[in-house]
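User: Please predict structures.

Assistant: First:
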Amino acid sequence: MPRSPAASWLTAAAFALLSVCIRATAATAPTPQPSSPAIPLPPAPALDAGAYILIDYQTGQVLAQKNADERLPMASLTKLMTTYIVFSALKAGQLTLDTPVPISDAAWRTGGSRMFINPGTQIPVIDLLKGMIVESGNDATVALAQKVGGTRAGFVQMMNEYAQRLGLKSTHYEDVDGLPMPGHYTTARDLATLTRDLIHDFPQYYFIFKIKKFTWDHITQRNRVTLLWTDPSVDGLKTGHTKAAGYCLIASADRKGMRLVSVVLHAPSWDARLSDSEALLNYGFNFFETEKVATARAPVLKPRVYESAAGYAAVGAPHTLYVTVPRGKTASLQTNAALTKTQLIAPLAAGSVVGELTVTDGTGQVVGREPLITLEAVPAGGLLTRAMDGVRLWFH
């Protein structure tokens, strides 16, 4: 049957409108960009150090390791936990950087590396922190421990309690400064965990670790982390050395927003711990990259919530999600947001876990995950809403 003029006109108009939409879509669609070719991933450096580990700061991803769980003496790397606890006291308001600390005879008599403080004086916390971190002063360390813990023994107990709290499963402390004692040990993995927590939890005090030299009582000492002079991306952290521990170094570097942490234990020489640390950092920066996949509390899904007043709820990750992959492989990453239940029913409290966001690489392996939570509370709707949704759920 022939179409009427009106029908023909409507058909023509529809085709014209569709043509305009197609042209508009083609004009605004982004031009696909070729991804950079993946760089072949060589094996991690083979180093002479007794143990080491390299991790990405944002993700905690291990990029290289050797004997990372072997219990070893830690020498002055002990002072990282002492520092963590003093920083905690500062953050809690128990101390300020200007709080004067009385110097005891016991602190003054402490052997090993020293800040050269005098008994009977009072020194501000900030100067003792510089003496402990920059100069590795055992005397400054004992003075801070006595101020925060009351006694050295009391502070050691705090150190072990913090170790448990931070998940350091293979670490035990017997002193505050790292002088050799039986039963005083840690692992490269635990030290990497502690370092990551220290940087994350106290960014306002981290500047102390990159101070290159410090003068006290007319005595100037240089920071023993000499990578601060040779590698501008390095901004800390700590060295250590005893006959039992060998030469140790924890270093952190930030290059173009990517931060890595390396831990080297029981290296055979001063130079070896430096070259080993630099080799690990260069390996990580050259062959890996860290990508932000999801922003904290940004909506990822907006699923239907039955029996709610709003009808829908914004769902997102509680924390920013990063993943670390071999350089050139970020284009192959895929994200998947899935709810744990097919039907969400109000009321839901803010922060309720309702699903999971996962990231897989080109091989299908999961390389990152975060829970999905409700970003706001989802209250129940009125009686009529609940009744109508109850019927819908019955037939769903």
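Second:
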Amino acid sequence: MKILLVEDDLQLLKQLESLLSEQRYLMDTAADGSQALDKIFAESYDLILLDIMLPQIDGLEILQEMRRADIITPVLLLTAKGSVEDRVRGLDYGADDYLAKPFSIAELLARIRALLRRPGRECDTLLTVEDLSLDTISRRVTKSGEDLDLTPKEFSLLEFLLYNKNQPVSRVTLAEHVWGDDFDPFTMSNTIDVHIKNLRHKISNETAGNSPIKTVRGIGFVIKG
């Protein structure tokens, strides 16, 4: 699952980005309204965490622009504690839920899970190939019914490859989706190869030879099934 976090408090932005990445969500971030709109219209997200008070374009205007363009991505508004009027306007403009600052991490994660499991999304929550299964809501990966212990980056790589099953994915595309702004084209290819090697070992019975992840020469990787 890919989440866009829009927050102008850079310390909070980094904290939440790190927290949600540890929960194995793919993360994109934006620190102002203009950057957020550019990303919303250029990328596809499963959920948007949207602060209302933003530089350049505020969160409510972003929400209006999204809904006018028929972008139905769920939106969780992050609001100041006393801004009841903004919350009401946000819901009227098409927000799916709101969370008042300061909020607990446990509540934030619960709200995220609730929005991602809403009716109409069930068909996307379980990704499978052969005896390998990945649940995008519970963040659980199993092979032959046994839980696998993947790192957040390994989970994100596997999730993205499964979303694109039978479609070759380039190293650059993988890097942009999994590492985001930390993408470095000069070092990332080797980094991806190391993570793919470790992931193959974990999802194979004995050796990487029978892994569902195949290398596509000159392009990147593919999962077939």
